Amino acid sequence: MLFNHPCFLRPARWLVPALAAASIMGCATAPSATATATAPIRVKVFVAAMFEIGKNTGDRAGEFQHWYERYWKDATPITVPGALGPVYCNADGVCGAVLGMGKVNSSSSMQAILLNPKFDFAEAYYVISGVAGTPPQRGTIADVSWGTWLVDYDLGHRWAPEENTPGAPTFMPRKGYEEYRRFQLNPLLVDWAMNLTVDVPLKDSDSARTYRLRYPDTAARRSPAVTSGTHMTGDTFFHGPGMSRQAQYIAKLYGADDYVITEMEAAAIALVVKRTHGTDRLMSLRGAVNFDQGNPNETTLQHLDPAPGETAGGFAETVENVALVGTRVVDHIVRNWGQWQGGVPAR
């Protein structure tokens, strides 16, 4: 009962009156738990990277370092139980974390962060950021791609090619996974992202330029650009022209755009975000650091295990490109929060 609260108990008659008065004043002015509780951080944009090579700053950059140096060099890490690493936030509401590689690793981290009461994601935008592969028919090293669709490569039936009609796909979708296996990202948000970044000057390297010439494809030989298309999520690091054709087959089977990026996390993260806040504010941003198949003069195994000096090159430039492109969108949203807070504005 209310009158059993210590502040309502009558002081003993032997208490000094002044002491009793002080006790009552203390009760009257004691702050409530609600008033002293720390308000959750209102997240405007959350950046999700999958791995960092070493430290967050000062050494060779992985997927997170350029973002960290731009937004969180002075931020205090916030530990989140169940997440791979801490979350960093700045005063503008831009937060980010390394979630881990693969579907299970990344999605479990994302769920732990989304459900943690230290953060308010009710109005947040999301940028899934990382490196990836690309088919030489549609992309090149150091490209940066905005996802239009996220498609799961694994949810279905697959069998050995020798047990199949020669040349036919060795994949059949499994019934019951229709809402889990592909996500169309908000076309208006993709349009905003492309228009804000299509003219970003991208870094390139001599080693990448030389490596591209091993491929006959026009797309593979061009300079890096900002592109868009389907991002294919698979825990299997699939490789070779046959697997690449199968990825394109799956994309078209699901009614998605051309497959342009192979990665390992985005569809799983999208499902977690969809179940909590929806995917209208979700973006997938990937930089191509390898082709998904060898050139015509090498086998798939040779491409997977190249000799020293035979790698694509351009990794450092690509991770920088991803941040150059992504930060332009993040900065625009934060700078114009009044227009973006209620949802993606009309163009």
Automatic annotation (TrEMBL):
Superkingdom as given in the UniProt entry: Bacteria
Gene3D superfamilies the UniProt entry points to: Nucleoside phosphorylase domain (3.40.50.1580)
A UniProt-annotated Pfam family: NUP
Keywords, ordered alphabetically: Signal
InterPro entries, per database record: Nucleoside_phosphorylase_sf, Pur_nuclsid_perm
UniProt xrefs under SUPFAM superfamilies: Purine and uridine phosphorylases (SSF53167)
One GO biological process term: nucleoside metabolic process
Keyword Membrane appears in the UniProt entry: no
GO MF annotations, alphabetized: catalytic activity
KW Protein transport (keyword) present: no
Signal peptide residues on this chain, from the entry's feature table: 1-30
Matching PANTHER family: PURINE NUCLEOSIDE PERMEASE C285.05-RELATED
The protein's name: Purine nucleoside permease
Source species taxonomy: Bacteria, Pseudomonadati, Pseudomonadota, Betaproteobacteria, Burkholderiales
